[in-house]
């Protein structure tokens, strides 16, 4: 073992400021030339054995090192987030495009030369921290911008509307979707009685339910997910003019989703599918990007819409108010420590900067209270904003003092204002500080919902109507699945009653799938559905998808003797399209290719079902096929790829696998024969992502 320096030199370790587009965090670096110490800096002589009275005697209370180590361990956990507990984040930066000044004076949106550091956390909503990545659920999309004017948090979701209109119902919604309190299941699932009981008694949730039952709730990757600020906000320019806006994040790679069966298979094969995907991409230097846009409109336009822009269960079709790009976000660095950064990051919609302001949306208004409050119990102290991931990166100073775990040492004699003893004490900024937009407001105190929030079905109909046929099929299947898990018949019949107001054909399909035709409750809506509402094609993910395999994974099934030329050609071509090939061999030790070269495998077959890949290629050597046929995993590999509508490349040697899996290698143009290592046709086909026409035959 290497000789370490003397104890005198070994005290403590250095605090180093790390830099990067993600900004600076206090990072303690382990120094291999120094000893292991206690928290007091005392070098530890023996970390293997506790101090005992005799070799076989009891441990002594005197063992301060043992006590310190165990005490710290005993307190390593903090309460998980009450919602969005399972999440994964990354550092990055935001860069504005030029020319946003007419909308806002926010410095980070106006300076197109500046790269504003940020931290972004994606999450599922319902599941615990240890649940899987791919349940059917809404995804959180929260961004903390460390701007020169203070931290700005845009705390959104991957769905542009919400279940409820008023924050006072949030605890009820979450209690309904979380595991039922007497039995503590189901985990990370909305498919149970209490959720559907609540939402079926809350008609305002109908529009969001359509989104939650759509493929949006099964994202393929965080990198391929849209984000939305949901509420209407205000942008304020230097002249004090306010513009109403809705925020949108659009991924450069395009928005893609999983298929339900695939998501279920992935949950078993790789519960960390989305985390791993983000980690792998960023570590490989393949930095995901999103464009931030707004739909900008004024009060006059808002007054003409047939819905209220303060109602968070409504969206504004892009065909009415198009998206205006403001800038881009790039994620380029993973946290060094998950707990210190991703777990301790505390978002809050009330973290705002000059140039941005709230609206009177009653859901947003409630959120402005809840987030700060929840951090107090989650992070345990009013000083949580001093934790490096939460601390502003611009200077900050005020007269707040003391409290549990105060890190900052304020040297002044006074901590009040006005004072005449310390002329250097912080003073108000007046016109240079944040000034709330003077929105006119008046009225009587009332506990009431505005009449303008009363139409609960028209936009649900609009959404369904705007979907392609496969998307509509998936929505119907998801409703049938979820309601099928409800034991209470009255919940199913009530929900079927709501669906009749969304779309007659949808209601009929779901009722048929449940084996409950004609059993819908009669529900009289406050406002009848406007069936003539114009569809919004922009809401569909599949109407006009980008033809690309950028950011995607191709699974390549090989055996000993597989064609080296084909493997090299596929890897090269995929790389030129920014895709990644992962080699799946019968054993993880690897395989020997046709030229006798031993190559490593990324996965072993039984551990990597085809559900983990976007497209697959079966390229076994003829000699390897008999052994492959003995493995159920290889037949399943092909059968599942086919059932998940994937593009499947295959060499002629793979023919017996097709026979065993009962898949016709000429079934459709998603099955591509690869001859003489020519992979271009396969790659071209893989850009289609899935063959939707296959679906009615396989499901
Ligand atoms: Fe919330 C967390 C997004 C409504 C109360 N919310 C949380 C997170 C996201 C959202 C992305 C996770 C942040 C992170 O990664 O740490 N929430 C939304 C959106 C909503 C919404 C888009 C509606 C448009 N939330 C909402 C309401 C309330 C809350 C109406 C309460 C009145 N949300 C919370 C919370 C959480 C939270 C309890 C839990 C952990 C946290 O805040 O930090 O305060």
Terminal CA distance: 62 Å
CATH superfamily of the domain at 87-161 and 212-359: Catalase core domain
CATH class of the domain at 87-161 and 212-359: Mainly Beta
Low-confidence stretches: 5-23
User: Quick one: how many beta strands?
Assistant: 20
Q: Main beta sheet: strand number and arrangement?
A: 10 strands, antiparallel
CATH structural architecture of the domain at 87-161 and 212-359: Beta Barrel
The dominant shape is: globular
Give the CATH topology of the domain at 87-161 and 212-359.
Catalase HpII,  Chain A, domain 1
By oligomeric state, this entry counts as: single chain
**Ligands bound, unique:** CIS-heme D hydroxychlorin gamma-spirolactone
Count the helices. How many?
20
Which helices and strands, and how do they pair?
Elements: E1 15-17, E2 26-28, H1 64-74, E3 87-96, H2 107-110, E4 116-124, E5 139-147, E6 150-157, H3 170-177, H4 193-200, H5 206-212, E7 227-228, E8 233-236, E9 242-251, H6 260-269, H7 273-283, E10 289-297, H8 299-304, E11 324-333, H9 338-343, E12 356-357, H10 362-378, H11 458-465, H12 469-484, H13 489-502, H14 504-514, E13 553-557, H15 564-576, E14 580-585, E15 591-592, E16 598-599, E17 603-604, E18 615-618, H16 625-629, H17 632-643, E19 648-650, H18 655-661, E20 671-673, H19 680-686, H20 695-698
Parallel strand pairs: 13-14, 13-18, 14-17, 18-19, 19-20
Antiparallel strand pairs: 1-2, 3-4, 3-11, 4-5, 5-6, 7-9, 8-9, 8-12, 9-10, 10-11, 15-16
Helix pairs in contact: 3-4, 4-13, 5-11, 12-14, 13-14, 17-18
The chain binds CIS-heme D hydroxychlorin gamma-spirolactone.
């Amino acid at each position: 073992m290497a000789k370490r320096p003397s104890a005198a030199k070994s005290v403590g370790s250095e605090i180093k400021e790390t830099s990067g587009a993600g900004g600076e965090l206090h990072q303690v670096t382990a120094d291999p030339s120094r000893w292991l110490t206690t928290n007091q800096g005392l070098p530890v002589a023996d970390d293997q054995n506790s101090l005992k009275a005799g070799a076989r005697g009891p441990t002594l209370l005197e063992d301060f090192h043992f006590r310190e180590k165990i005490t710290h361990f005993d307190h390593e956990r903090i309460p998980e987030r009450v919602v969005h507990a399972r999440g994964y984040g990354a550092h990055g930066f935001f860069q504005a495009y030029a020319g946003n000044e007419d909308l806002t004076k926010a410095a980070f949106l106006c300076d197109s030369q500046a790269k504003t550091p940020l931290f972004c956390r994606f999450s599922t909503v319902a599941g615990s921290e240890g649940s899987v990545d791919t349940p059917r659920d809404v995804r959180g999309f929260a961004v903390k911008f460390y701007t020169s004017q203070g931290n700005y948090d845009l705390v959104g979701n991957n769905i542009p509307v919400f279940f409820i209109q008023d924050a006072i119902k949030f605890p009820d919604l979450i209690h309904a979707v979380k595991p039922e309190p007497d039995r503590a299941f189901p985990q990370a699932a909305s498919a149970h009685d209490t959720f559907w009981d609540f939402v079926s008694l809350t008609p305002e949730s109908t529009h969001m339910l359509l989104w939650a039952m759509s493929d949006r709730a099964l994202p393929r990757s965080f990198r391929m997910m849209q984000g939305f600020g949901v509420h209407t906000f205000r942008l304020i320019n230097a002249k004090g003019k306010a513009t109403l806006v809705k925020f949108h994040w659009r991924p450069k790679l395009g928005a893609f989703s999983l298929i339900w069966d695939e998501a279920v298979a992935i949950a078993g094969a790789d519960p960390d599918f989305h985390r791993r995907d983000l980690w792998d991409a960023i570590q490989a230097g393949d930095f995901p990007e999103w464009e931030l846009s707004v739909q900008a409109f004024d009060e006059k336009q808002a007054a003409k819409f047939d819905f209220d822009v303060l109602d968070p269960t409504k969206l504004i079709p892009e065909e009415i108010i198009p998206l205006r790009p403001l800038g881009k976000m790039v994620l380029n660095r993973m946290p060094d420590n998950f707990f210190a950064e991703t777990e301790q990051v505390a978002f809050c919609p009330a973290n705002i900067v000059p140039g941005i302001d709230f609206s009177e949306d009653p859901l947003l208004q409630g959120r402005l209270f809840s987030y700060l409050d929840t951090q107090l119990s989650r992070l345990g102290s009013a000083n949580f904003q001093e934790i490096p991931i939460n601390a502003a990166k611009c200077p900050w100073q005020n007269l707040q003092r003391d409290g549990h775990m105060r890190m900052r040492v304020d040297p002044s004699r006074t901590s009040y204002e006005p004072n005449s003893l310390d002329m250097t004490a912080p003073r108000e900024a007046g016109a240079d500080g944040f000034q709330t937009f003077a929105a006119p407001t008046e009225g009587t105190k009332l506990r009431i919902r505005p009449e303008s929030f009363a139409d609960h079905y028209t936009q649900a109909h609009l959404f369904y109507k705007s979907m392609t046929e496969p998307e509509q099929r998936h929505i119907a299947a998801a409703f049938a699945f979820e309601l099928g898990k409800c034991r209470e018949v009255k919940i199913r019949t009530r929900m079927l009653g709501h669906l009749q107001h969304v779309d007659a054909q949808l209601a009929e399909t779901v009722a048929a799938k449940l084996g409950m035709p004609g059993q819908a409750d009669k529900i009289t809506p406050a406002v009848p559905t406007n069936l003539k509402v114009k569809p919004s094609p922009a809401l569909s993910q599949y109407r006009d998808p980008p033809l690309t395999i950028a950011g995607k994974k191709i699974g390549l099934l090989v055996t000993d003797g597989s064609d080296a030329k084909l493997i090299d050609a596929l890897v090269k071509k995929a790389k030129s399209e920014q895709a990644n090939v992962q080699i799946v061999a019968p054993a993880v030790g690897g395989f020997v290719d046709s030229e006798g070269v031993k190559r490593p495998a990324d996965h072993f077959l039984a551990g990597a079902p085809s559900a983990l890949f976007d497209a697959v290629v079966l390229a076994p050597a003829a000699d390897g096929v008999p052994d492959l046929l003995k493995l159920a995993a290889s037949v399943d590999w092909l059968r599942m790829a086919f059932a998940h509508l994937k593009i499947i490349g295959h060499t002629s040697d793979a023919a017996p696998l097709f026979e065993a899996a009962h898949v016709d290698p000429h079934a459709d143009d998603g099955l591509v024969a690869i001859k003489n290592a020519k992979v271009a046709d396969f790659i071209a086909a893989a850009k289609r992502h899935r063959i939707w026409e296959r679906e009615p035959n396989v499901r």
